Amino acid sequence: MLNFQGETADTVSDISADARKRLDNKTKPPGSLGQIEAVAVQLATVQGSVVPVVDPARIIVFAADHGITAAGVSAYPAEVTAQMMANFASGGAAVCVLGAAAGASLEVIDVGVNADLEQLTGVVHAKVRAGSRNLLEEAAMTHEELDSALQVGREAVVRAVEAGQKCLGLGEMGIGNTTSAAILTGLMCGASATEVTGRGTGLNNSQLSLKQRVVADAMQRHALLADDPLECLRNAGGLEIAALVGAMLEAPAHRLPVLVDGFIVTSAALIACRLKPSVRDVLFFAHQSAETGHALALRQLAAQPLLQLDMRLGEGSATALALPLLRGAAAVLCDMASFADAGVSTAE
Ligand SMILES: Cc1cc2ncn([C@H]3O[C@H](COP(=O)(O)O)[C@@H](O)[C@H]3O)c2cc1C
Ligand SMILES: O=C(O)c1cccnc1
User: Any signal peptide, and if so, which residues (predicted)?
Assistant: First the structure.
């Protein structure tokens, strides 16, 4: 089996074994750093080095609007997507301040916001179309639009790598996108609409029932596509979700660790991992969102989330909070003394 850039599975497992051995020689009881040790081994394996590097790190926010908002599936009006783009550009959004606090740079990409944002500086303009189509009436994207949105994601990763970035956090902005994420999660996990549909930005009970009906209708409409992840994405996804998939598909070739944010980014991960299983190796899951369906999606991916803070925001906010944990894991492998270095006695 070939992984990464033509390496054999044996080389990959050698690096994992070396990293594991290195950790076991550090001045601590074996395994005592718990999940941080698993993160350290995964980072080493992704980068092909027992001294992994996490910085500089960049958070990328892909943004787009959704035709499905016409069905009343969000507590907020669709205009909020464009308004939040201005907020990202001026540094006022949660991901801006959390990213800055975590020492990560931020790139915000307009993949399909339904507003003319050309005058907005500090945003990457890569609009494929002004919002996806209403997925209850027609496919959310044409084949060409899907290809273009996937390409926007791939190019963002290449740009980050060329700028020397060593780790990425992936986030999104798009009013209505928890509906697309729910449909994709339901189709990829074989779960029911009630299991995957949550309140998103804060729907009340009657709004939630309506959203569940929308998700159930869409899942029924697209059920035959469940074996074709790309067609699921084209029919029920969004332009920013497609860009997220493109970014994930690109990351393994660059040995780039990727922090996955919440429910929406994880729905993209379900698609990307089905399309290319080696994507799973580079993914780190920042948190378990409070949004219904996220726990189920994480289970499907055998993912152990790093944080559980009852967050349900998106934007990449949790990737900023989890980044220091990756840094800590790398520091343990790189900088901690071994028993021999420090003259500490090993277990009897
Ligand atoms: C002010 C504001 C800022 C946000 N930042 C992220 N989201 C989050 O909420 C949206 C998804 O929820 P739904 O499917 O219910 O519309 C996405 O834009 C997501 O990133 C926000 C939502 C709002 C209102
Ligand atoms: O988990 C998420 O990513 C999420 C949940 C609700 C609203 N927006 C994002």
Answer: none
Below-50 pLDDT ranges, the chain: 1-3
The answer to whether domain 57-325 has CATH 3.40.50.920 is no
> Within the chain, how many helices (H) and strands (E) appear?
15, 8
Residue-wise pLDDT for 116-172, tens only, equals 999 999 999 999 999 999 999 999 999 999 999 999 999 999 999 999 999 999 999
Which ligand does the CA of 202 lie closest to?
Answer: 1
Is 240 in contact with 112 (CB distance < 8 Å)? yes
The protein residue with its alpha carbon nearest to ligand 2, atom 5, reads 312
Cβ-Cβ contacts under 8 Å for 152 (sequence gap 6 or more): 62, 109, 111, 126, 128, 243, 246
User: Given this structure, which CATH class describes domain 9-52+331-342?
Assistant: mainly alpha
Q: How far is the CA of 20 from the centre of ligand 1 (A)?
A: 40
Q: What are phi and psi of 239, to 5 degrees?
A: -65, -40
